[in-house]
Design brief:
single chain; about 475 residues; mainly alpha; two-stranded antiparallel sheet; about 70% helix
Length: about 475
């Protein structure tokens, strides 16, 4: 009877843990919608469909590549660098599928980060290529290093103290300030640099930056709210279980710390833009500041004391502002300030953990172990940045060499929705203004006109305008031209 009870308790524990990690993964997957709406609102209306389908495909591309290759590389049996079992989930224990799903959502998030920096001018096939490479190889290798028990960053190294005692120091990154966000930010930076700025973004005469504003602040704000919500699961779910000793406490602490860091960073960003920016109370800068604060707390949200996260919020806001300012001065076009949010916030998060982690950070312990901890954080961050930058430079460089990275100037001018997808996000006829119906009435009236030459000319011209209208062109000026001929 005792054995039966113990087995039942074990089954209950396993079921609760798997349900927890799946539910957290589902919420993290909702962040794909947040990225999609944030990016859609931040681009011009002529590119809305393009950016939405790219964000939609993140989930599907990652769903295939992470299933076939990515999880194998990250968590299969292997060495400290790479794994080589569980290809396409073959022989993967059924009890591991919950963890697999949660890790898949992280891989998809890493790829999604990049699309915002390349918005409005990246070739569709280039997007497919880099999504496959990031989710299938670049990110899985880094996640193995940082999180798999066999990974070299996770294992760390054993050192001997002054009194002869041995201790282990390793790279620590609880929810991916480095492994997810710095990686995505570096990939975005390399891609945006090789891709070049959008047409009209920087003046060739006075080298000034011209604002190319998005078409819908409400859409961007809606996406931002979804991301803020999703970050609570992104960080809280990284505990990967709920029933272990101290696990529930770590989940709750992660959620609270994420909220505090995001809140402080949002307020500091709001004030910084007011004082040092354009003297306006900017919604989008405040939103990006909040996201940066949440990115910064990822590395240690399960152990930080809340006051530490307030400091992180200030540092995150400063990193976001400094990174965005530097990129603008370098004429690197990042439409959504992706690099500032994810790379700036990620670097702050990884390094700050070596100072702010309770009992081990430099603020709490000024000894050899804390100094070595800082060294390992810098080593891990540097390795992740170098690995990602090197492979992305090769990947984007090859695409650029074969003229497959950027769309033509003509397509960029027209917008990508109609030429690439045949689906205008805001088709003219959806406004209900009745242009098509009015033109049809005029055509019927023409039938009663005598004079075949005039009738044929007007019929042909108006037919062309109807076709343009159905393709999404704005017909107001076209209809005025018809009236002149009429």
């Amino acid at each position: 009877m005792m054995n039966l009870t113990e087995n039942n308790l074990k089954d209950l524990k396993d079921n609760v843990d798997q349900l927890f990690v799946v539910l957290m993964g589902i919420i993290v997957m909702l962040m794909q919608a947040g990225f999609a709406f944030l990016e859609a609102g931040s681009v011009r209306s002529k590119n809305t469909t393009n950016i939405l389908i790219k964000n939609l495909l993140d989930s599907f591309v990652a769903g295939i590549t992470y299933w076939i290759v990515g999880y194998t590389v990250a968590y299969g049996k292997g060495n400290s660098f790479i794994g080589w079992t569980y290809w396409a989930s073959y022989d993967l224990p059924l009890s591991s599928f919950g963890i697999y799903f949660f890790q898949y959502t992280f891989a998809a998030s890493a790829a999604t980060i990049v699309s915002g920096a390349l918005a409005e001018r990246c070739e569709f096939m280039a997007y497919i290529v880099y999504s496959i490479v990031i989710t299938g190889f670049i990110y899985p290798v880094v996640s193995r290093w940082a999180w798999d028990p066999a990974g070299w960053l996770f294992v760390g190294s054993v050192y001997t103290g002054d009194n002869g005692e041995e201790f282990t120091v390793n790279y620590q990154d609880y929810a991916g300030s480095g492994a997810v966000h710095s990686l995505g930010g570096v990939a975005a930076l390399v891609g945006a640099t090789l891709l070049g700025p959008r047409k009209g973004r920087f003046s060739k005469l006075n080298k000034m930056a011209a604002p190319l504003r998005g078409h819908s602040v409400p859409l961007a704000a809606f996406g931002g709210f979804i991301l803020l919500f999703g970050f609570l699961a992104f960080n809280g779910g990284s505990q990967l279980n709920l029933t272990g000793e101290g696990s529930a406490v770590a989940v709750c602490l992660s959620v609270v710390n994420t909220l505090i860091s995001g809140s402080v960073s949002a307020m500091v960003s709001l004030l910084m833009n007011r004082i040092f920016g354009n003297s306006k109370w900017s919604l989008l800068k405040t939103l990006n500041g909040a996201l940066t604060g949440m990115v910064a707390t990822c590395s240690g949200c399960n152990v930080y004391r809340p006051w530490s996260c307030a400091i992180l919020g200030v540092l995150g806001a400063g990193a976001f502002k400094l990174t965005a300012f530097t990129l603008e001065k370098l004429h690197i076009d990042d439409p959504l300030d992706v690099v500032g949010v994810h790379l700036g916030g990620g670097i702050v998060g990884v390094i700050a953990l070596a100072f702010l982690k309770p009992e081990e950070g430099i603020i709490f312990q000024q000894n050899r172990k804390s100094a070595l901890f800082l060294g390992w954080q810098i080593l891990g961050l540097t390795t992740i940045i170098a690995w990602t930058a090197g492979l992305c430079f090769i990947m984007f460089g090859i695409l650029k060499l074969f003229d497959k990275l950027r769309v033509s100037p003509e397509l960029e001018e027209k917008g990508l929705d109609i030429p690439k997808h045949g689906e205008n996000a805001y088709p003219t006829e959806a406004y209900g203004h009745g242009w098509d119906q009015k033109l049809e009435e005029i055509l019927q009236e023409i039938e009663s006109i005598k004079g075949d030459d005039l009738k044929g000319s007007l019929t042909k011209r108006i037919g062309q305008h109807i076709k343009k209208s159905k393709q999404g062109s704005t017909p107001s000026s076209d209809f005025s031209e018809v009236n002149l001929h009429w």
